[in-house]
Amino acid sequence: MKKEIQNIFLLALGAIAGAIIRWQFKNNILMNLIGSSILGLVFGLQVRGRAYILFGIGFCGSLTTFSGLMLDVYMLLNSGLIYKAISSIFLSLIFGVFFALIGFLVGRLIFVIKPFQFLQSRFRW
Length: 125
Description:
The chain is mainly alpha-helical and about 120 residues long. It is built from 6 helices and no strands.
């Protein structure tokens, strides 16, 4: 039970941070792209356990939101801006996948090279 409470706390901590950043920027597409790249990085680094709960589920889950994007699309459609609504969907999806891929590749590169392990072996901290 103690571990479950710790996990809930980590999830909430990540979600609060993601929500505050999202609220400050007020740009769904930008936040979704940043969140996609961070989540790709998390997967590329093979983050597991509590760090995954904090960053992958809590932070990225709160930073990115499908419902915010859909509300933006609805508002564009309701304003008669059909082409802008459709382009918003496609740009979000295409660039979201691209940013996730870039984040993943950077994470894999860091995971393979392990620069921090290299530095620790050279400089005993």
